[in-house]
Recover the amino acids of this structure.
């Protein structure tokens, strides 16, 4: 078996790994490079393999950095099968449609070719074959695949591939524990090799229990100052966790003020899927919400059209606006930042990972002067963050998860920036005594 690393190497985005085994070519994820302009331009480079020769793609979850180049794969001739869970397929459709719209707008603005078109998304969706957690399928003679709950987002999985007498496990992204909405990641004890994410490989998350107190403080502060709280949020998982915490906040502290807006059609559609697939949610939340109304949406103003979104500017303060994109590199949050970031009584609450090169990263790092749509904006708004909203396991959680695989021969670290990877690699060697490799783009390894 040979594994080649073609994305998500020494960086967080663009996950894409090629497995050659039993005469077949298999991809783990096919994600978009995100972040800086030069990073995004790499999406236009040809794949380092012939897309038409790929037999299978295993898509572990729907985030764009794991699915975003699938339509390009179809455009370049891929006609094989895609294995994923049912919620991953549906969420991927939402995420890809949204991304296509943003690309079309950008292409028009900057007079460039979009990466793919609607037809490519339709083509890719036809190739999905959905499987459930823990269902083992023989994708081809001698190649077995099992998807197991990764606890990261709705329908997220880690993949266990058995072929050539080797058990290769790919974590894709592992969830942060405890999650309000999802069961914790399952464990695997039989892996020979593991490709492991390392987004927060060098960090320890804030205590999840303090999160609600912190959120309540920030909302109450907005109310006191009669300001605007902007929460750039990823449409899947993060938004639903926020909504759930806001529901709790409202039931404890009252909801007369401020007004809450969910200004993201994508997040609204994703939220509906949580009710459609309750079997993928944690047993705790299912028990406490037997009616499948997990998010108290009746309290939230859901804005769909651009016109409705614009009206938020005129609505009286205080108000809380949840809008995409999560890293502020597009979407409606940019308009809200243009309107509200210069006022010191307003706040920006960062609840997710901010990739290098994104506007979100610059604001998070304290840059006071930023450019939005070519316009200079002075950020006087207070910038706050709550780390425990992360959907990724931190260092102790990754070490714990890896420790179940007692006989693993080698661990490949992907999906992380180098400083995080080096810290995690050191910790793995020290605590687990295992061999660690931090592959570079294009590197390959033969596994025996
Ligand atoms: Zn992810």
């Amino acid at each position: 078996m040979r594994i080649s690393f073609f994305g998500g190497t020494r960086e967080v985005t663009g996950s894409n790994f090629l497995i050659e085994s039993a005469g077949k070519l298999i991809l783990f994820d096919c994600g978009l490079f995100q972040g800086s302009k030069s990073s995004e331009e790499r999406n236009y480079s040809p794949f380092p393999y012939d897309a038409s020769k790929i037999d299978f793609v295993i898509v572990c979850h729907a985030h764009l950095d794991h699915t975003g180049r699938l339509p390009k794969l179809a455009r370049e001739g891929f006609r094989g099968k895609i294995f994923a869970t049912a919620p991953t397929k549906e969420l991927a459709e939402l995420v890809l449609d949204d991304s296509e719209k943003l690309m079309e707008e950008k292409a028009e603005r900057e007079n460039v070719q979009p990466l793919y078109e609607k037809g490519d998304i339709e083509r890719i969706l036809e190739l999905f074959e959905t499987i459930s957690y823990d269902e083992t399928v023989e994708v081809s003679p001698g190649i077995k695949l099992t998807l197991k709950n990764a606890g990261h987002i709705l329908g997220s999985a880690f993949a266990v591939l058995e072929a050539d007498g080797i058990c290769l496990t790919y974590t894709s992204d592992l969830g942060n524990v405890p999650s309000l909405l999802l069961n914790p990641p399952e464990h695997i004890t039989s892996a020979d090799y593991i490709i492991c994410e390392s987004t927060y490989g060098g960090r320890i998350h804030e205590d999840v229990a303090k999160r609600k107190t912190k959120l309540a403080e920030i909302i109450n502060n907005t109310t006191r100052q009669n300001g605007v709280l902007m929460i750039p949020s990823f449409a899947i998982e993060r938004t639903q966790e926020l909504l759930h915490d806001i529901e709790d906040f409202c039931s404890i502290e009252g909801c007369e003020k401020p007004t809450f807006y969910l200004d993201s059609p994508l997040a609204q559609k994703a939220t509906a899927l949580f009710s459609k697939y309750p079997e993928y949610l944690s047993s705790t939340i299912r028990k406490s919400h037997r009616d499948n109304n997990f998010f108290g949406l009746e309290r939230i103003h859901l804005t769909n059209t651009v016109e409705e979104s614009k009206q938020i500017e005129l609505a009286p303060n205080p108000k809380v606006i949840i809008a995409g994109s999560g890293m502020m590199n597009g979407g409606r949050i940019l308009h809200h930042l243009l309107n509200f970031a210069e006022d010191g009584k307003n706040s920006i609450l960062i609840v997710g990972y901010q990739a290098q090169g994104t506007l979100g990263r610059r604001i998070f790092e304290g840059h006071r002067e930023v450019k939005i749509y070519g316009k200079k904006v002075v950020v006087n708004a207070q910038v706050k963050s709550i780390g425990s909203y992360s959907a990724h396991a931190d260092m102790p959680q990754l070490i714990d998860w890896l420790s179940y695989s007692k006989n693993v021969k080698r661990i490949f670290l992907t999906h992380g920036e180098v400083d995080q990877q080096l810290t995690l690699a050191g910790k793995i060697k020290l605590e687990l005594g295992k061999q660690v490799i931090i592959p570079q783009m294009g590197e390959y390894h033969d596994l025996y």
Observations:
- The radius of gyration is 21 Å.
- DSSP finds 14 helices and 22 strands in the chain.
- The pocket of zinc ion is lined by residues 61, 63, 66, 152, 173 (CB under 6 Å).
